[in-house]
Structures are given as structure tokens and as C-alpha cells.
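Discussion board: Methods & Data

I've been asked by a reviewer to show the raw model output for two of the constructs in my manuscript, not just the figures. I'm not sure how much to include, so I'm pasting the format here to get opinions. Each protein appears as its amino acid sequence followed by a line of C-alpha cells. Is this the kind of thing reviewers expect to see in a supplement, or should I convert it first? Here is construct A:
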Amino acid sequence: MKKVVLGVAALSLVFGAAVAAFASPQQARIPDLLSRGVEFTDASYRFNRPGVNHGAFEWRGLLTDALPDDRHNVYVDVKIEGHDWVRYYGKQGRSVLLHKSNWDGAQRYTGDARLRVCRDRGSLRPDNCAPLQILSYDWDHA
């Protein structure tokens, strides 16, 4: 009887590890994004698996207006596969912790995202932005 119980326990551990590996989302840190007047630090992202948080691209980070006296705001732009950019503004002269999720309701999950941070310099001068971050996850080989 002990052998049967131990065999079932071992089998359940192996099966549980396989399920946990599939259930784990792909996640990583985003390098600090810096440009004149804007900083995005302590940032990370996660590509959620289908069925978890809409299969969204979930991200978080500290957006900072690094030149508070210039009277320009800062923002994060996020683009997921096949859709337009979505803009999230910070607060002038302050740091704001952002934690957002981006997804497409017609898809089970998201595998490609682009993220950039910029200082909004108004309509007459171009915004200055940190280098674009391209993030992707190959769900077929997960």
C-alpha cells in the first residue's frame, strides 16, 4: 500500500510541475529608460498566459519627471500587436508608480509589445523619448 501511495504522490508532483510550467507567465525586468527630462525605472513586465488577466501584457514601473521646472509632462506609450499606441501620463514634477495591463479582447493572449517613455514638449517641438523597447514572447515554444 505504501508503494502505491508513494507512486501516486510522485506522479502528482511530476504532473503538478508540468502544469505549473505552463501556467507560469513569461516575465522579466525592463531596463531603465532614460531621456532628457524623463525616467522610467524599477520596471518589469509579464506576458500573461491565456485566461489570466485577459492574456494581457502587464507592466509596471516608476515614471519620473526628471526636469520638474521645465513645465512639460512625461508619459509612457504602449503598443500591443496590431493596435495603436496607448498613452499613460505621469504627473508634472513628480514620480508616479504605474501598473497597467494591455490586451485585445479578440485574442486569447498577447505576445508582442512595444514600450517607450517620452517628455511631452507640446505641439511645436518634438517630444524627446528614450529608446523603444520591443518585447515579445513565443507562445508556440513556451
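Construct B, same format:
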Amino acid sequence: MLLVEIPVAILLGLVLSVRGWGRAGRTDEHSGAPAMDWVPVLWLGGFTLGVLVVAVVFLRSAHPYAGAVQLLIAAMALLFAITACHEEYERAHPAPLPTCPTRAGTPCAPPEP
């Protein structure tokens, strides 16, 4: 099973990174924060769920070492899913701008690139 999961994980990482490149060059024409992108979270969560199912099958069929390896892979995939969720949340909810010292209570304009 590990021989199947490795290419799937590599393909998943490649697809998500290429997808991120396309988003990085895009400029948003509307003001405000972008919406949260759930695709990386759902893909990584689905991969994690699939690995967990394989781990349960191995553990129930009296293959404890293979099940333990699958559980370790599932833990790593879960960490990647949580990291993706956190990054998307931070992207969708940026920190507020500091208040301007010259105009009391109004936020400063973001610096131009």
C-alpha cells in the first residue's frame, strides 16, 4: 500500500503547488480579503481519511506493523491538512491595518508595491 500512497502524495503535492502558483500571480480586482480556499484542505483531508481506512484494515487483519506505519503516514498527512487550513485562514483573514497617527482612529492605507 505504501507504494500506492507515495505517488498519490507526490501527485497531490504537485497539483496543489501548481494551483498555488496560479493564484499567486493573480491580482484581486475587488477590495477586501479573498475568500478562504477549501480545496487544499479537502484534498489533504481526503488523503488522510484514505490512509486511515487502510490503517484500520491492516490493524484488523493482524498486520500491526503495517498498520502502525499507515498511522504514522496519516499523522503526517493530518499535519499537512492542518497547516493548509491555517495558511488559508490567515490568507482569508489578514491582520487589520494599524491606525494612522495623523488621522485619529482611521486605518492607514496599505503601502503600494
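Answer (T.O., handling editor elsewhere):
This is acceptable in a supplement if you add a one-line summary per construct. For B, something like: The two ends are 48 Å apart (CA to CA).
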